[in-house]
Amino acid sequence: MKVREILMGAALLSLALNTIAENPLPLMADVEIFPLATNRTLEPSALPLVLEDDVFSSAYYDTLAILGTENRCSKFFGGPPTVDIFNQIIAKMRKDYFSANVGIRMSGTTVTVHDFQTNKAYRLFEKVIINGNGPFYRSRYPDSASLPGIGTYGPDTREARVLMLLHELGHTIKSDDGKWLLPDDGGDDSLSRRNSMKIEKVCGEEISNRSRVEGKTEETAKASPL
Ligand SMILES: [Zn+2]
After folding, report:
1. From ligand 1's centre to the CA of 140, what distance in Å?
2. Is 210 a residue whose pLDDT tops 90?
3. How many CA atoms, within 13 angstroms, populate the side-chain half-sphere of residue 170?
4. Which of 60, 65, 186, 214 has CA atoms 20 to 30 A from the CA of 170?
């Protein structure tokens, strides 16, 4: 009898723990977490678009090369820890097809992370969708009119793709003054364009350098069927 009571107690305890594990976060619009360590290294398999999509993969590695080295652009985003944040965004990114003038859309619940190791704060959106109809992949609307460029770069160019990825990164990182590097611009085309220009001003030189250094990568990526 005594053994049975102990077993019952253990079962109840384990039930309580399960309930907690199934509801780890309250459903709120903005959840703050304080991780002990965020120095994760993501396996390539955690980045599905990098594996499956040659055009995307090329833009990803271009951006990584800029963020992973010391330059004005990587410094603007906060230096080496930014690579980890960028990878977390890319791990969430999926491809979909919608209104052509949107390049990448981040939406849904956000999780704000305070990383005490790097003393950086950033947020991750629940959904990060890259538009297969938009300027990342296409230069024209379905009716064949030209899509607007990104910054001073034409749509569907290597430079525009890197600028688009850096633009989204700008929405996720908090600057030292407590504001996001780029203000929210959902539904505001004019602010979105200004945000792209702001990033191009800081990163334009590095973005153009990538194309000069390895001009062949773009040809390879463009020649691959999607
Ligand atoms: Zn934006």
Report:
1. 20
2. no
3. 24
4. 214
Q: What's the pLDDT tens digit per position in 175-203?
A: 989 999 999 999 899 999 999 999 999 99
Q: How far is the CA of 166 from the centre of ligand 1 (A)?
A: 10
Q: How far apart are CA 115 and CA 52, in angstroms?
A: 31
Residues with CB under 5 A from ligand 1 (ion): 185, 192, 195
pTM, two decimals, is: 0.78
Q: Which domain holds residue 63?
A: 27-223
| Structural domain contains residue 21 | no
Place of tokens 């539904």: 187
Q: What is the DSSP letter of 45?
A: G
pLDDT-derived band of residue 39, with 50, 70 and 90 as boundaries?
very low
Query: Ligand 1 center to residue 189 CA distance, Å?
Result: 9
Q: Is residue 38 part of a domain?
A: yes
